[in-house]
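Hi there,

I know you've been waiting on this one. I reran it after we fixed the sequence typo, so this is the corrected version. Both the input and the resulting structure follow.
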Amino acid sequence: MEFTKRDVEKIAKVLGVEAKDWGNNYRLILENAEQGRKLSLEIYPNIPIGSEKGNLISVYTHNTHLQLHFCTGFVISEMLGEVTFIGEYQGRLSGLIIEKEAGCSLYSNVDTSLLSGDFTKLGPEVMLSGIALSLSEGILPESD
């Protein structure tokens, strides 16, 4: 999966901002003055990451820097006003969720079996990641 300009335009639309093309990446700046939040989202399509090429997602806030290497897909939720970027490797899922209100959440190395399991049988500290990333289940590769 490689991000296209059209993908980035869809992401920008649901987040309510403009995407700026910086050559090797796209930058989207989200701001929520009411809550005092601002973040920059950068999408690097198919760039060298070590010895391979892949998609890199970076988020910068006033006091945080997050990166998702080898992003393998994304899910847009217009209803929630958010985009979930995912990276899946050997049954483990990492998800970086960007909210229209300039919020973000990161869930890393989540067992994909949690996405379709019975959330009521999980502790609340584990349940949240399964619920948050369950939107991505439809774009994950089929397991054998």
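Quick highlight: The radius of gyration is 15 Å.

Best,
R. S.
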